[in-house]
Amino acid sequence: MNEPPLGPALPSARRLAASLVGLARDLAALALPQLCPGCGVAAEPARLLCDACLERIPRLAMPLCARCLAHGREPVGCLAHPGHRVWAAWVYEERSALVVQALKYRERIGLAPGLGEELARPLRPRRARTWWSRCRSTGHD
Ligand SMILES: [Zn+2]
Ligand SMILES: [Zn+2]
Questions:
Q1: Using one digit for the tens of pLDDT, what is the confidence trace for 44-81?
Q2: In this structure, which ligand is nearest to the CA of 72?
Q3: CB atoms within 10 A of CB 99
Q4: Ligand 1 centroid vs 23 CA: distance in angstroms?
Q5: How far apart are CA 137 and CA 134, in angstroms?
Q6: How many whole angstroms from 82 Cα to the centroid of ligand 2?
Q7: How many Å is the Cα radius of gyration of the chain?
Q8: Ligand nearest to the CA of 41
Q9: CA angle centred on 115, ends 39 and 106, rounded to 5°
Q10: Cα dihedral angle (35, 40, 44, 47), rounded to 10 degrees?
Q11: What is the C-alpha separation between 48 and 115, in angstroms, rounded?
Q12: Alpha-carbon gap, residue 39 to 36, rounded angstroms
């Protein structure tokens, strides 16, 4: 009577439990409307917040120097560390924290595509200018 060891079965049990939790969450999302945690009106589950709350999240229009920020110096307008320049999609405040925390701690994986779009947003105009500048200098259009 040799029984198989229990070790390899545990990861499968965990995966099954995680799948059941995900299924229950999906069913609840179908049955119950998603309400914006920022203001309580209906919102798309893939975005968590309603349009008005998403638009109220402050965005930065300029890059920051991550090196100066880490050392407690003024991060805006730094010319000394061009390799440490970063663009922040959102200022971290009450509404942006709700979205980030839902993704990180409540396993709302469906929020990831929308957050990816938000992360890419500050880079779009800069890339377009770079591409356009390159085309003009090489004679392509
Ligand atoms: Zn709202
Ligand atoms: Zn700097």
A1: 888 899 999 999 999 887 889 999 999 999 999 999 99
A2: 2
A3: 23
A4: 26
A5: 5
A6: 7
A7: 22
A8: 1
A9: 65
A10: -110
A11: 11
A12: 6
Q: Which of 78, 42, 48, 47 is nearest to 63 (CA)?
A: 78
Q: Cα separations (Å) of 13 from 2, 16, 129?
A: 21, 5, 51
Torsion of CA 102, 107, 59, 47, to 10 degrees: -80
Residue 2 to residues 5, 6, 56, 102, 132: CA-CA distances in angstroms?
A: 9, 12, 63, 45, 70
- For residues 57 and 75, the answer to whether their CB atoms sit within 8 Å is no
| Residue of 52 and 21 predicted with greater confidence | 52
Read off the pTM: 0.60
DSSP code per residue over 4-50: PPSTTHHHHHHHHHHHHHHHHHHHHHHHS--B-TTTSSB--TTTSS-
